[in-house]
Each structure stands twice: as structure tokens, then as C-alpha cells.
Prior knowledge:
Elements: H1 18-21, H2 24-38, E1 64-66, H3 81-85, E2 91-97, E3 105-113, H4 122-126, E4 132-134, E5 149-150, H5 152-162, H6 169-173
Antiparallel strand pairs: 1-4, 2-3, 3-5
Amino acid sequence: MKPNDPTIRWIEDPPMGLSGRMYLPLFVQGLTTTVKHLFSRKVTLQFPDERPKIGNPIIYRGVHRLNKDSQGRVKCVACFLCATACPAHCIDIVGAESPWPDREKYCESFTIDELRCIYCGMCEEACPVDAIELTSFLDLTGRSREEMIFDKEKLLSVYDKTKDREPSQSVRLGVPVL
């Protein structure tokens, strides 16, 4: 197709008025947006001096925790469903034969690379025993990459810090704790 093809119907730009040539409507539109943002509610916080308010901490996806059962043992049964469901491949589990008669296996080692995690919650959804959950903890800092790899003890310590404020999903739903 060539530009001088007689079958092509070319459309001319509409003529601009004086205000259009002076960009007056765009200028007024820009000023309106600026004034609206000047008088609107500010959403920027000076973190960590100002703490953000999380509406519902139960649905927030922060740092992971490993839940404990009623006897203080880790609830994980090393089924590897969370590691399989994780799209970021940040969960590493080493299973071992359980010393307790109520389950076949338990996690001897459980690590999550918090820098690799995308906090999608798929691990939480995949867990059949409600062993892993995301908390409302948002202070995730570390001096090195190794500090951001949370092992089993660190994940259990998150549980100890958050269990009263954020009960596990099985407790919230009234499912008996095993």
C-alpha cells in the first residue's frame, strides 16, 4: 500500500482553537490535579518513626512463621506441598522420621529465603496441617543475605512473637488443634 493510493481516505486533524493552541485545557487540567493532591490526605509515612496501620493483620502477607501444635511441637509434617506450590522456589525442607506416634514425618530442617519469596501465600494455601502462615510482621531487615534466610528456629520464634496477636487459622476457624 502506497501513500498515494486512491482507495485510502486521509482524515485531516481538526483545526485547533486559540485555547488549544495555547495548551490552556491541559494547563488547567494539570493545575487541578496538583491542587487536588495538595489538599488530599497524605499517605507517605516516615517509616520507622511512623508505623503503618494495617487494617486487618490476618490478611496481610508479611514474614512467615511455623506454627506449633498444642504440645509445643512444630506442626509441619514434611509433606513438601508448600515447597512444591512455591513459585519462587524459596522453601527448602529436610524431612525425617517422626519420633512421635501421631505422624510419620516431621521437618528436621525448614528454611525460607525471605529475599527470594514473593509473598504470594501459596505455601500457606497448600499446607494441609496449617503449619506455615504469613504474619503481619513487616520489619524485615538484615545485614547480609544469610541473615534473610530464615531457618526453623527463627520461624518458630516468629510464631512465639505473633501467636497471641494473630492466632493461627485453625484457631480462628474453630478447627481443633492437633
